[in-house]
Design a protein that fits this description.
Blueprint lengths: L5 E6 L2 H17 L5 E6 L2 H4 L16 H8 L5 E5 L11 E6 L7 E4 L14 E3 L3 H10 L4 E3 L5 H9 L5 E5 H6 L8 E2 L14 E6 L3 H7 L5 H17 L7 E8 L2 E9 L6 E9 L3 H31 L1
Parallel strand pairs: 1-2, 1-3, 6-7, 6-8
Antiparallel strand pairs: 3-10, 4-10, 5-8, 5-9, 11-12, 12-13
Length: 314
């Protein structure tokens, strides 16, 4: 008796396809009799490349159309880079499995300079991330930051064309594509704290789809999920918009979880950093507590101001 396939919705970019194909291979290995197929899609986030994501709806644009495909029965699950997934999911959807976390750090890539600290005054650096921009501007107000959108190949080509002195990308994506040799330096978290969920591949399904949920349990990595829970609880508590430079990164040492957080103004002039440690089984609570502590320290007023400014701009 043949079984219907589990259909994986995925973006068409090279990195997204690699991730979906990786999940497909893992499912086939765990369940040899289970048919699995891909449903590649082009999302709004992939199509609009001439503006910052924050100006056209945020990273949720990479996720929304895949959820619609699941809702309409055209796909069963969706594979995401968790840094692209909003803190709050629509009713009826859940992240039901995550893979072991890859390198979460930001990559400094330059053809001229061996380290970030070697960049000269006024160097031109390409990045599209408000989070990276705020941290770089805080560290180096002299840098000229330029919008950098498109897939990995497009961004590397911008660098090679000579218009930029350096660009920032995620180490995980470069490593997955087999092109980590481009990384000049992995940036320390004290300089550039990673995005929430950076380096984690997550798999989303409808909450009522027990067949997909059961099949995916063989792929689930509990430690990565614990760290992810703390980071996403931090972001959800802050409720920042896509314009808000927010970062969180959690690490596990035996049963102790440490959550680091960053909140900043886009110009880097006002920034907040803090960290909190506690039992790993309190991951979400630790994320929320850290967020509230930083809000009380002044970050709450900053985020409220950024929300007002974003509302006026739109």
């Amino acid at each position: 008796m043949s079984h219907p396939p589990i259909r994986i919705a995925t973006r068409r970019s090279k990195l997204a396809m690699w991730q979906a194909e990786h999940v497909m291979a893992l499912l086939r290995s765990a369940h040899p009799d289970l048919p699995v197929e891909l449903v590649p899609m082009s999302t709004q986030g992939d199509r609009v490349l001439d503006r910052a994501l924050a100006d056209v709806g945020g990273k949720g644009l990479f996720v929304k159309e895949l959820e619609v495909a699941m809702q309409e029965g055209r796909a069963d699950i969706a594979v995401h880079s968790m840094k692209d997934v909003p803190s709050e999911l629509p009713t009826g959807f859940a992240i039901v499995a995550v893979l072991p976390r890859a390198n979460p750090l930001d990559a400094f890539i330059s053809r001229k300079y061996a380290r970030f600290v070697d960049l000269p005054q006024g160097a031109r650096v390409g990045t599209s991330s408000p989070r990276r921009q705020a941290q770089l501007r805080h560290a180096r107000p002299d840098l000229r930051l330029e919008l950098l959108r498109g897939n990995v190949d497009t961004r590397l080509r911008r660098l090679d064309e000579g218009g930029l002195d350096a660009i920032l990308l995620a180490c995980a994506g470069l490593e997955r594509l087999g092109i980590a040799h481009h990384v000049t330096e992995a940036l320390d978290v004290d300089l550039s704290l990673p995005a929430v969920g950076q380096g984690v591949i997550g798999i989303e399904a409808r909450t009522g789809d027990t067949r997909s949920r059961d099949a995916l349990q063989a792929l689930h990595h509990a430690e990565s999920f614990t760290r992810l829970l703390a980071e996403r609880a931090f972001a959800a508590t802050l409720g920042g918009s896509c314009h808000s430079p927010i970062a969180a990164h959690a690490t596990l040492d035996d049963a102790t979880l440490t959550v680091r957080g960053f909140i900043g103004a886009p110009d880097g002039g006002e920034t907040y950093r803090d960290q909190l440690s506690g039992p790993a089984d309190r991951a979400e609570t630790l994320g929320r507590e850290l967020a509230r502590r930083m809000q009380h320290a002044g970050a709450g007023r900053l985020l409220e101001r950024l929300r007002r400014e974003a509302a006026v701009a739109t």
